[in-house]
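Task 17 of the worksheet. Students: predict the tertiary structure of the chain below and write it out as structure tokens. Keep your answer in the requested format; marks are given for formatting as well as content.
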Amino acid sequence: MMNTVLLASGTGESAKADSLRVRGVTPTDTIEFVDARSVTSFSLPLDPASDLSRFFITVNGIHDTAVISYTRLPHLVSPECGYTFISNITGVATTHNIIDTLIIENSKVDLDGKKNLHLFF
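Model answer:
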């Protein structure tokens, strides 16, 4: 899971979104991942079948699109559990309606749960 923290533009202080909705968009489907109130962070899965994930993000009623590009490397968890993917974020882009900046803090997306992105709004 890719972990993202919300921050206030200008100050960099932790910010709380009154409402947050995040949907993943694929060529064949739209999947709702987050629909929450009073949040300061969120986690999203990256598409394991692609090197690009597109998300529709609605913060406090204002819509943006974020595109995350990455490389994928299969990782054997165990013979019983099978494989997962470790991803390395290579780029981010947004439409900048409410999102001021999206910054990569830690490009490695794996099972450690570390923060990956800073979303300033």
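Marker's comment: The chain has a mean pLDDT of 95. The two ends are 22 Å apart (CA to CA).
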